[in-house]
Amino acid sequence: MSLVQKPKIAHLILAAGSSGRMGTPKQLLHWQDNSLIGHAIEQALRLSTSTVYVVLGAYFDRINEKINHFPVEIIKNDNWQLGMGSSIRCGIKGIQNYDLNYDGVLISLIDQPLIHQMHFELLIKKFVKGKSSIVATNLESSVGVPAIFSANYFNDLVELKEDFGARRIIKKYQARVQKIDVIGKSADIDTIEEYKRLIKDHFG
After folding, report:
1. pTM higher than 0.85 for the full model?
2. What is the CA angle 105-39-165, rounded to 5?
3. Which of 16, 123, 159, 178 could form an SS bridge with 57, CB 3.0 to 4.6 Å?
């Protein structure tokens, strides 16, 4: 009986923003016994099928100092202020500089802390190696990241405009998109108020 080879996935964590609405670097906010970015990296590292890349930009030195002990590749986006599209483009180009043989890329954010390893594993399980496959997350009000894109879409990802994220690719190819629900865990953090509410709701 032949064994099915697992797909080779690059896990790209986007963490380059300035957290303008927060007044402080969102990446370094406390979460459980870690920070938001540390928590995101730890969840990603638990996957055996992926190599982890982290895109930093704003507060680069300050954040890099806190995470450079992790076995991840750090990619610096000097144009982070142009928007998420620029971070995705920078990340994909950085990944291709390291290795051209990935079957796909899993893109995730640091400000969705309730989404963890088990959800990533479901996305990977659903992903079809070598196909025009996109597996995205049903966030209740929308479909977006975390999402896995087949390497067939790398050109689309590097051509994203600065003010558009991966959701634009998901919408463009929506007929090909498979979805995994994440009911009750889709909260993201954009303001201090949202952060405090999430902490209160889940940790008392």
Report:
1. yes
2. 40
3. 16
